[in-house]
Amino acid sequence: MNQKVTLKSLLEILLVSTRLGFTSFGGPVAHLAYFHEEYVRRKKWMDEKSYADLVALCQFLPGPASSQIGIGIGVIRAGTLGGIISFLGFTLPSVIALILFALVVQNFDVSDAGWIHGLKIVAVAVVAHAILGMAQKLTPDLQRKAIALFALTATLLWQTTFSQVGVILLAAFAGFLLFKQQRSDEEKSFSFPISRRFGAVCIALFFGLLIALPILREVTSSHWMAMFDSFYRSGSLVFGGGHVVLPLLEREFVPTGWVSSEAFLAGYGVAQAVPGPLFTFAAYLGAVMNGWLGGLFATFAIFLPAFLLILGTLPFWNQLRQNPKIKGALMGVNAAVVGILISAFYFPIWTSSIMASIDFAFAAILFSMLVFWKLPPWMIVLTGAIGGTLISFF
């Protein structure tokens, strides 16, 4: 896709990503489903294979995978500026909501509200739809079905920080062995307005900051530098999605006394109630410590590693995915992603959402609205919130 960047294309990215930012409830796996529905099925900005390859790439990288995928799609569409706008649209709604919660209503307990439970059931319907679509495309033969089954079983039984990375590496090796002689259809190539030199600079800056910030923290004794180091390091060392970053942040800020345990847990409950990436929990913590400016500063610090990594790797993506030695490995990784999605569909999405037969019935209704009646995702989200509120009265 070699497309001239125009104000119209940037505005379109902003509108689409902001709509997703307001409606993408359910965590990182659900975000992949919302992205798939919007960018692949509706907008057709990417084909199924390219989207799956981008998901596979971001699964390899530390940081918030769904945010990195959104940035990558924006870059593919309209260069670095498109990636920034895509990120802002998807992230700012939850950042603003969490800063307001921290400043105004952080003492309210909304974690058990009925409408939140309804939004969890929405995630069940959305993820189920995405899994069906991706499984048809990415696991068409018995070998890839077996890889997906292995990924499903391993990630359910071996739930550690690095389990997804280990499973993906094994799947890549299996795919290389099974499919290295197999020719696939001609790949659609994407043109990135990012040079390899710029990508290399981003990678070097990522590692440079990771090494330099703890040193600067000790030398300067600055509160803001300490905050930047803690959030940047937390964003750099997380594999496996937003929930993994919570214990890292807790260890950084609660023992130091910067945030009380009660305030941390209250913010965690609020973070479950807002759409968008869970990494925006940093905005809440920053606002508790230093007001709205601290919230914005913390958001910048925790997402900066994700930006540097995706901008650093994208210029090399076409070469990697079109290399005959890499194609088979990617076929294995894509199959593993299906298994990982099914695993996450069961735990934590299904286990935290479907508590009774009425929940399952409501999930079936939402799934039918999405798949058979093809209603837009925002309508599914609204129906889920209303339905969850009604269910809470039974």
Beta-strand segment tally: 0
What is the CA–CA distance across the termini?
A: 51 Å
Radius of gyration: 21 Å
Instruction: Determine the mean pLDDT.
Output: 85
Helical amount among residues, as a percent range?
over 70%
**Count of DSSP helices?**
16
User: Low-confidence parts, pLDDT < 50 over ≥5 residues?
Assistant: none
Structural class: mainly alpha
**Coarse morphology:** globular
Portion of residues in beta strands equals under 5%
- Topology as a string of helices (H) and strands (E): HHHHHHHHHHHHHHHH
Major sheet characteristics: none
Characterization of the model:
It is a single chain. The chain is mainly alpha-helical and 394 residues long. It has a domain at 196-311. The protein is built from 16 helices and no strands. It has helices at residues 7-23, 28-42, 48-60, 65-105, 114-138, 142-157, 163-179, 196-220, 223-236, 242-253, 261-271, 281-313, 317-322, 324-353, 357-371, 377-391. The longest helix is centred in the N-terminal third of the chain and has 41 residues, at 65-105. The radius of gyration is 21 Å and the shape is globular. The N and C termini lie far apart (51 Å).
